[in-house]
Amino acid sequence: MGKRKNIPQLRFPEFKDEWIAVKLGEIASFSKGKGLSKNDITENGVTECIRYGELYTTYNETINSVISKTNINRDDLVISETNDIIIPASGETHIDIAKASCVLKSGVALGGDLNIIKTPNNGVFLSYYLNSSKKQDIAQLAQGISVVHLYAGQLSKLWLVLPVLPEQQKIASFFTVIDQKISQLKHIKNLLEHYKKGVMQKIFSQEIRFRDEHGNNYPQWKLMSGDALFTTISNKSHNSDLPILAITQENGAIPRNMIDYNITVTEQSIDSYKVVEEGDFIISLRSFQGGIEYSNYKGICSPAYIILRAIQDIDHRYFKYYFKTERYITDLNRKLEGIRDGKMVSFKYFSEIKINVPCKQEQTKIADFLSAIEGKIRVTQFQIEKAEVWKKGLMQQMFC
C-alpha cells in the first residue's frame, strides 16, 4: 500500500508515524457466542446479556450499559471480557451485518450468532474503524442471499491499517465524547417527547386549564359532534397540476416528493383525486392507527381518503393536537371493532364521536403552548442530526 493511504487525512498533531497494514487475523482471535433466545430474557435475570439482534436496534460502537438479563446457568454461556468486539454472524443484508460494537464490561453473556473478536489493540477504536472505513469491505466478505452469514475465517482475512496504540486510544476517546454528546441530546429529546405526551393528556382531560390575559377562567368546554365542526369535501376539480400528497403519521399530509414514496399513479387515476386545501384534515382509512392527519399544503390525494374541512371558526392547530390524543384515537378505533379488513372509517363514524371544544381563545393558548414544546423537540432533533453528520465526516477523515 502507498504511503498516502497509510496516513489519514486528519489526525492529532502529536502523531506522525505511518499506519501499519495488517490482516485482522494477525492481531486478533475469534470465537462465537452461545444460545440466548428471546424466551431466555427476563427482567429479573441475574446475568446481563447481549443478543445479536440488539446490535442492530440498541447498541452503537460502545456497549457500557446492557439492557437484557437472563437466568441461564453461567456455565452454559459465553461470557465477555472487557474490550471484546462483537459483530453479527448472520443478518438480512450484507451491509447491515457489518456492524461492530466493543463490550466495555466483563461478565456479560454473549448470545449466539455473534462473532467475538479479542485483540490487544483498542477495541473501541477498532469498532469505530470497522463501522466506517471497513464497513463495505466487511459487507463484501459476507455470504448468502436471503440470510447473510459472516464467519471468523472471512473476518480474519480483512485488511486493516492501524496506528500505534496511543493514537488508537486518543481517537477512541475523541469519538466516545462525540457519542456521549449525541446520547445526551437524544435523552433530552426523549424527555421533551414524554413531557409533551403527559401534558397533552392533562390538557385535553382539562386537568390543566389556561386563563385569559386578566387571569380569568375561560368558558366551560363544549362537547360537540364531529359533523357540527367539520364537513367532508370531495372536490375533484383540478388540472392534475397540484402536488400529490402522501398521508403520513409523522408529518401529516405532505407532497410525495418530500419523502421516499415509490407508488406510481396513472394520469387516469389522478383525475379522480380530491383537492386538499391547506388547513384540511384527512382521515387515514384502512388500518387506522395514528389519528387524523393535518395538511399544511394544498394538493391532491387519493379518493380513498376522507377530507375534513372546518365549518366553525377554529384554531386548526388545536384540533391537530386533539386528533392525535390517545383517547381520541381509541374512540375512533372503537368504530372499527367487528368490521372486517377493507372497511373504512366513514364520515358517519367520525361524526358520532364527541369532541371536547374550548373557546377559540383557549384553543389558541393550548396550541401555542404545545407548539413551543414541539419547537424545542425540532431544535434538539436538528442538533442530533448535525452532530451525527459531523461525526460521520470526521470518521471518513480520521481513518485510513
Secondary-structure topology with pairs:
Blueprint: E1 20-23, H1 24-27, E2 29-32, E3 47-50, H2 54-57, E4 62-63, E5 68-70, E6 84-88, E7 90-91, H3 94-97, E8 101-103, E9 109-110, E10 114-118, H4 123-131, H5 135-141, E11 148-149, H6 152-155, E12 159-162, H7 165-204, E13 222-225, H8 226-229, E14 230-233, E15 245-248, E16 252-255, H9 267-270, E17 274-276, E18 281-283, E19 292-294, E20 299-301, E21 306-310, H10 316-322, H11 326-334, H12 347-352, E22 354-357, H13 360-398
Parallel strand pairs: 3-9, 4-8
Antiparallel strand pairs: 1-12, 2-10, 3-5, 6-8, 6-10, 7-11, 13-22, 14-21, 15-16, 17-20, 18-19, 18-21
Describe what you observe in this structure.
With 400 residues, the protein is an alpha+beta fold. It has 3 domains: 1-17 and 164-217 and 359-400, Bipartite methylase S protein (Helix Hairpins, Orthogonal Bundle); 20-162, DNA methylase specificity domains (Adenine-n6-DNA-methyltransferase TaqI, Chain A, domain 2, Alpha-Beta Complex), CATH 3.90.220.20; 222-357, Adenine-n6-DNA-methyltransferase TaqI, Chain A, domain 2 (Alpha-Beta Complex). The chain has 13 helices and 22 strands. The chain has helices at residues 24-27, 54-57, 94-97, 123-131, 135-141, 152-155, 165-204, 226-229, 267-270, 316-322, 326-334, 347-352, 360-398; strands at residues 20-23, 29-32, 47-50, 62-63, 68-70, 84-88, 90-91, 101-103, 109-110, 114-118, 148-149, 159-162, 222-225, 230-233, 245-248, 252-255, 274-276, 281-283, 292-294, 299-301, 306-310, 354-357. Strands 2-10-6-8-4 form a 5-stranded mixed β-sheet. Strands 14-21-18-19 form a 4-stranded antiparallel β-sheet. A hairpin with a 3-residue loop joins strand 15 and strand 16. Helix 4 (123-131) crosses helix 7 and helix 10 (316-322) packs across helix 13 (360-398). The protein is elongated, with a radius of gyration of 28 Å. The model has no long low-confidence stretch (mean pLDDT 90).
